[in-house]
Amino acid sequence: MRDPVHEKRRAVLAALALAVLAACAQERPELVRLPAQRPEALLLRNVAVLDVATGVRTPERDVLVVGDRIQAIGPAGSLATEVEVQEIDGQGGTLLPGLVDMHGHVMSDPSPPWAIQIPDPDAVLRAFLYCGVTTLLDPADSSPEGFARRARVADGTLPGPLIYSAGLPITAPGGHPVGFVRLFAPWWIAWYVAPRSAAQVETPEHARAAAEANVRAGADFIKLMVDRLPEGAPRIGVAEMRAAVEAAHARGVRALAHIGTLEDARDAARAGVDAWVHGVYRERLSDEAVAELAAFGIPMVPTLTVFDSYAHALDGARPATELEREIAPPELLASFAEMPEDMPAIATFRPFLEQLHAERESGRDNARRLHEAGVTLYAGSDPQSGVFPGAGLHRELRQLEAAGLTPVEVIRAATLGPARFLAKSDDPDFGQVAPGKRADLLLVAGDPTQDLAALSKIREVIARGVRIERIPIAAQPSD
Question: For 119-146, what is the HEC assignment?
């Protein structure tokens, strides 16, 4: 039995450690700002509207937003309203739904492992919004404030994308992410955070109880950590997976599985999970294995960007994108150029990095062939070291295009497809530009159906009918 006095002392020490880290952390940029007073309506004039379901882009349209809904769409110059309206010139641009990140960790920090900082979830949410992400699935948030933060975003008091949360992940004793926390977090905080980063289950009964506890706490999903990270870490058993999935399904909640190998994907599917997060990235799938996985009918969020980022950690070949330069300080972007050799955690992690470098094309090739075999792919970035919230999703979209998806298929994988999955509906109230739908909108320059790079040329972000003021880091005051 745990000693409550001892536990209290440990909690106090951890709080002090967190306070020290927070005091040393750099101040995060503002990036976005909500209007002081919301107009009654928005009118986007003379814009090309993209129907992501069909891929048809219709030019010269006006789109009227009233409250948090799209009220009407008509030919340019045809719409009028009697209420106060704020007009937005959309000429030369394309209007599409706000993006959905299907692997968007809110408690994350993009700094290199040797300079990691305490996550600032409010700043992460602002970065997502700046980059046009208006909805995200957070597949693992172990912080006690996670569900309250989700509510604050939903009621408009905290700027950010609407959050679907899986809460505390479920893993084997010592399994991922416990081992990673112990490896990379400073010892004087890891001893407290590591055991609280996941529910560690030894038996089906423990797994069932962990899933039920997550659902009671308010989780939209549960997540099973199946991949062995770090290399050789314990892996949750199939019986434990099945028990957790059955407990969640009995309460109307679906299950996600973090996978890395064919064995992981196969076992998770047989346990009844509803989606694979991460693809098979540790090995190239045979044609027979591709057919086997496709037959399960389970969607996949391959997160190609995160593994590409780690694969290039050894050679420093990671030029920043324009969006990354807009949301991250130059010194942070420059800090990835050279990995220190004298950090014990890096030495321990190096074999994994070398494996990723050797297999860096396998994940993309697997995703391409799974897509061709009929597996539904969703876009997700997995923000963490080297993967910047929001900007990382735009990298992922280019990775999906490189994996063989057409620009329209890529856009659908980050809009309507995820919306249908999250809402459990073929006709969700977001993920489309249509009357009656939630006004989560992204106005970009050019035509992304012809050039996917246009998605990163953001002119306007509208979240739940609110026009977001975007403030790139270069435009913010410096000390």
Answer: CCHHHHHHHHHHCCEEEEEECCCCCCCH
